[in-house]
Specification:
Blueprint lengths: L1 H12 L18 E6 L7 H16 L4 E6 L7 H10 L4 E4 L1 H4 L18 H8 L2 H12 L2 E3 L4 E5 L1 E4 L14 E4 L3 H9 L3 E4 L5 H6 L5 E4 L1 H6 L8 E3 L5 E9 H6 L2 H36 L2 E3 L3 H10 L2 H9 L1 H11 L5
Parallel strand pairs: 1-2, 1-3, 7-8, 7-9, 10-12
Antiparallel strand pairs: 3-11, 4-11, 5-11, 6-9, 6-10
Helix pairs in contact: 2-11
The protein binds (2S)-2-hydroxy-2-methyl-3-oxobutanoic acid.
């Protein structure tokens, strides 16, 4: 129970605690009453599609599988929920592969700076060999994972201080990064001062000035209302990030094959639809965020990549991931990175 108490306090402190999302009229007496957690509010496309998916799973399983959504870190910060997932306290969890690397080191390979040029390349890679490689690593660490990764997006840097135009602007910059060695290393290579902070505390960290900036895809700037605490948005596209739908392996294996199939089908369909939603949302987001007060700029990414190369970022991570993973990444993006 201590975990729940702590999470509750954390949620309150972050001002993010909302009423748990409970579907009306559903008696919670299903044969498999499972939980799915994530770090996004119900307005994010992830939870819109997840709501649809769990309703379809309930229906198609004839009421046998009832999965309740816990959005907005209601069960705790990402790194805590990852522990709960392993222990079986939560059965499903949507998590960034880059944060997952705190448990599965090579799972973060998609997050290498400036590796992916566009979404076509991302989906070919993540639905192809690179994604299969990552899922193999995840399964090897004792978790189950659905085939289709959900989109988070291409990450952009926001600041309260001024636009990021060249790598020089990142020197000494106090930036929040998610908890992961890859993120810390990326911004250390730019000479920034990265602070590892779970998403549950990002808004408060920006509001109180613990950090001057953060980086996230536009969809999250929107659903987390970051214009309230940030001014500048620099379109660096420095990393593509997603969310794997992870499962506790015992809970997953407890499902008979026909139910596994139903759950996997709807979660994977949810991912594919959510990707399309974010794509559509992206088209209008810059204008919408400008209207909220964000000031945009589009720096030349090649300057940033050159700075990372000079700092040894690519050479170091090639060594850390090893040749097999690195070659799969290079094959996926169609060029040498180190
Ligand atoms: O923590 C973040 O910044 C977020 C929401 O993008 C992730 O889940 C990695």
């Amino acid at each position: 129970m201590t975990i729940h108490r702590r999470s509750l306090l954390l949620g309150t402190a972050a001002g993010l605690l909302a009423a748990p999302f409970i579907r009306p009229g559903v008696a919670r007496a299903a044969e498999f009453a499972y939980k799915v957690a994530n770090n996004q509010p119900m307005t994010h496309p992830s939870n819109i599609r997840l709501t649809e998916a769990v309703a379809r799973i309930l229906e198609e399983s004839g009421g046998r599988v009832d999965i309740q959504i816990f959005p907005s870190n209601q069960l705790g910060a990402d790194t805590d929920v990852l522990s709960q997932l392993r222990a079986g306290g939560v059965e499903f969890f949507q998590l960034s592969p880059v944060i997952l690397s705190t448990l599965v080191p090579k799972a973060s390979i998609n997050g290498v700076g400036f590796a992916f040029p566009d979404y076509d390349t991302v989906w070919k890679a993540m639905d192809g060999e690179l994604g299969a490689y990552a899922r193999g690593q995840i399964e090897g660490a004792g978790l189950a994972v659905m085939d289709k990764i959900w989109d988070n997006g291409f990450r952009q840097i926001t600041s309260s201080r001024g636009p990021i135009e060249t790598p020089k602007d990142l020197e000494g910059f106090k930036i929040r990064v998610p908890v992961s060695p890859l993120w810390t290393s990326l911004f250390t290579a730019f000479g920034s001062a990265p602070a590892s902070i779970n998403f549950a505390e990002v808004y408060t960290a920006l509001q109180t000035g613990i950090v001057d900036g953060q980086e996230n895809p536009l969809a999250i700037m929107k659903t987390a209302k970051l214009w309230e605490v940030q001014k500048y948005c620099s379109m660096t596209n420095h990393m593509w990030d997603g969310f794997w739908m992870l499962a506790n392996r015992r809970a997953w294996n407890a499902l008979p094959d026909d139910l596994k199939e139903i759950v996997a089908k709807h979660f994977n369909e949810g991912a594919v639809n959510q990707r399309a939603d974010i794509m559509e949302m992206n088209a209008g987001l810059k204008t919408e965020l400008e209207a909220e007060g964000f000031v945009f700029n589009a720096p030349d990414p090649s300057l940033f990549e050159a700075k990372l190369r000079e700092a040894g970022f690519y050479a170091d991570w090639k060594k850390t991931y090893g040749d097999e993973a690195w070659e799969k990444l290079e094959a996926a993006v169609g060029r040498k990175l180190a």
